[in-house]
Amino acid sequence: MAGKTLFDKIWDSHVVTEVEGETLVYVDRLLIHEGSRHSFSMLRDVEMEPYRVEQVFGFADHYMPTETTDGGIPGVKDEKIRGMLELMEKNTAEFGVRNFGFHDPNQGILHVVPPEQGISQPGIVLCGADSHTSTHGAFGSISFGVGASESGHIMATQCLWQQRPSTLRINVEGALPFGVYAKDIILGVIANFGVGIGVGQAIEFAGSCIESMTMEQRMTVCNMTIEAAGRMGMIAPDDTTYEYMDGRPYAPKGTLWDEALEYWQTLPSDEDAVFDREETLDVEQLVPMVTWGTNPGMALPITGIIPSPDEAQDEDQRREIEVALDYMDLRPGMGMAEIEIERVFIGSCTNSRIEDMRAAADVATKGKAKVETWVVPGSRSVKRQAEAEGLDKIFTDAGFEWREPGCSLCTALNGDLLNDGQRCVSTSNRNFRGRQGPNGKTHLASPAMAAAAAITGKLTDVRTLG
Known about the structure:
Elements lengths: L5 H8 L1 E5 L2 E5 L2 E5 L3 H9 L10 E4 L19 H17 L2 E3 L12 H5 L7 E4 L13 E4 L2 H10 L1 E4 L3 E8 L8 H12 L7 E6 L1 H4 L3 H9 L8 E3 L4 H7 L9 H10 L12 E6 L6 E3 L7 E3 L13 H14 L14 E4 L7 H11 L7 E4 L4 H9 L2 H7 L3 E2 L20 E4 L14 E4 L2 H10 L10
Parallel strand pairs: 3-4, 3-6, 4-5, 6-7, 9-10, 9-12, 10-11, 15-16, 15-18, 16-17, 18-19
Antiparallel strand pairs: 1-2, 2-8, 13-14
Helix pairs in contact: 2-5, 6-8, 12-14, 12-15
């Protein structure tokens, strides 16, 4: 009998029952945010308490102001935004949910704080009220996003009905070249294999490059699994994982740590495990990537040129390219490095951790910002550490704006918006039409590439800055 994959091992250990192709899966952790208000309403409607409230965690992130938190929640000027923050505080207090809220010293994005706190762990099923919950799969877990009604179901029962996904392994091999980062890997995967490569699949990232990565780099890769249409992204836990987790507040302690570690070490896919599909990406020739269009698959090396609809493989693709070029106001044959920009955003659950801050700061030392540039740490913990290292001063000396933690310009729900039609280089995960504001034009890139664009005023190959 063939061995089991990482996914198989975790899934099989969490099956409660199966009925006509549907599986009731036990959920170990649920992450919610301000947009989860309907989940609480569901509990009230059926007069139920959370089944295991200690396994539910709340976060203030999508609606958090990042310009200033002075005055607390009452100081938030926009009535709707203030109301969302107040309701999150009320709901979590009423039901006894641990809330990393507005006033918490460890407040931050729901895909940044749980790893910092040790809430994200190998071998668990973790669901979150946000599609980029795939981030947590970097720890060797099954982690995926759910809607408000599903969140309510989990809160009430600690279980969820699911269909078992098929499996895909993407082997990422080689050493990252100079100027190439984790963000370039996942953009490279999506550009090479297409935005539909992982439709409904559990994607395991493996290979020599993945094994050499830090946990923060792994989180960036898993974060954008959803942009490749994957149901979830996963990386097998190893010594890098355990060293990162050891001693964090919610990580097991003492003999419980020893027992957990013994279990976690059994999780990596068996050598003879069979995946439904496998692909390989060699990173040795990878070049810094930037998106040019309106989905993450429309990405090119910074050395590339804007494609022509005439290069399309079929009429649907031709139309897709034409529409994207029109929206992005680009013309075929333009060099990527010719594109001038008006804004830069460094942040989001993809790239707002301390290593991202350091990479951006390294580039910020090489010049002064020519366009409005925001740096938004992913949590107050990241903010404190960055300030202890003097990164905030590097940013402000270079003319970058150092802001408070939150989702900010990634989701554009908290009042942080691009002006109508502005072109922005962003370290976030989505470049859809209007994602960052009305008619906003978004180019996704790594923190280093975003910082390079900030100090040159255009898309720039960070490797040329020395």
